């Protein structure tokens, strides 16, 4: 399918959805501490989403396998070696753990999507370095988006940033276009996918993308849980981070539509 470029009016509507996503992350940060369960984080997101008049993108989303169950929660919450698609539970968070919270909201027919990795208490030096690299990877992509002509000019250096720091780039999962639906063309990989044809795309005004680097402290190899059919974990048990913003490329440059999620990035 062709890429659906958005008008200024459509981007305005997506900005409102992005603000709802940011409000959900505010609710997470307000209660995040050791002892809080991931289910409590999910409940806080659900309350914030309803207060904004939004509905969840992830709840009851079909399993990609086709045979597995639909996603059972509002929020994807992934802890430590879980990369993405973690299911909230009654497991309490422990001091020093990393928790990645991914929130998707539909508001008035338009979508916003942002994931962010938080430290529970004080992170270890290695976890802090991994988080810094993940944030810098996302910041690099956003800085370069208005300056480059093709996504491959960003994707290749993205993988090099992680490799130079000694971290892995998850290749099985990518960013994506979004607008009226959560997953639109184009697919937005975090590396130069030279093994496939027709994966690259032009960077032109009107693009609305979810850009989301996923890095691992060790091997980039990951697997989907055989137990719940959703949770993606690193094969070697190493920690992972996930940083994602919904952005629009306009004639004036790049706009972060989910601004307010996580820390400000050096753009």
Structure commentary:
With 267 residues, the chain is α+β, with helices and mostly antiparallel strands. It contains four helices and 15 strands. The strands form four sheets. The chain has a five-stranded antiparallel beta sheet. The longest helix has 24 residues, at 8-31. The relative contact order is 0.20.
List its traits:
single chain; 267 residues; alpha+beta; five-stranded antiparallel beta sheet; four-stranded antiparallel beta sheet
Describe the sheet with the most strands. 5 strands, antiparallel
Q: What structural class do you assign from the helix and strand content?
A: alpha+beta
Based on DSSP secondary structure assignment, what is the total number of beta strands?
15
Report the radius of gyration as a whole number of Å. Answer: 17 Å
Q: Average pLDDT, to the nearest integer?
A: 97
Helical run tally: 4
Large-scale geometry? globular
Instruction: Record the strand order, biggest sheet.
Output: 8-7-9-14-15
User: How much of the residues is beta strand, in percent?
Assistant: 15-25%
- Helix/strand order: HHEEEEEHHEEEEEEEEEE
Task: Calculate the terminal CA-CA distance, rounded to whole Å.
Answer: 31 Å
**What percent of residues adopt helix (DSSP H or I)?**
25-40%
Which spans of ≥5 residues are poorly predicted at pLDDT below 50?
A: none
């Amino acid at each position: 399918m062709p890429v659906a470029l958005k008008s200024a009016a459509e981007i305005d509507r997506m900005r409102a959805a992005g603000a709802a996503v940011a409000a959900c992350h505010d609710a997470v940060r307000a209660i995040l501490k050791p002892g809080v369960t991931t289910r409590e984080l999910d409940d806080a997101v659900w309350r914030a989403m309803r207060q904004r008049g939004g509905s969840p993108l992830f709840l009851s989303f079909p399993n990609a396998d086709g045979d597995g169950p639909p996603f059972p929660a509002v929020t994807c919450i992934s802890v430590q070696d879980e990369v993405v698609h973690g299911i909230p539970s009654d497991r309490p968070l422990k001091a020093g753990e990393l928790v990645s919270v991914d929130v998707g909201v539909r508001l008035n027919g338009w979508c916003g999507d942002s994931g962010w990795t938080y430290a529970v208490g004080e992170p270890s030096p290695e976890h802090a370095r991994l988080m810094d690299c993940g944030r810098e990877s996302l910041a690099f992509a956003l800085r370069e988006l208005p300056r480059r002509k093709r996504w491959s000019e960003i994707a290749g250096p993205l993988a090099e940033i992680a490799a130079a720091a000694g971290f892995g780039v998850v290749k099985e999962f990518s960013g994506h276009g979004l607008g009226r639906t959560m997953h639109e063309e184009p697919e937005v990989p975090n590396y130069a996918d030279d093994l496939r044809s027709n994966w690259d795309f032009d960077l032109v005004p009107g693009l609305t993308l979810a850009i989301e680097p996923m890095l691992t402290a060790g091997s980039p190899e990951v697997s989907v849980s055989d137990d719940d059919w959703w949770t993606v974990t690193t094969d070697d048990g190493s920690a992972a981070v996930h940083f994602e913003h919904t952005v629009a490329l306009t004639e004036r440059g790049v706009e972060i539509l989910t601004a307010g999620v996580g820390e400000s990035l050096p753009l």
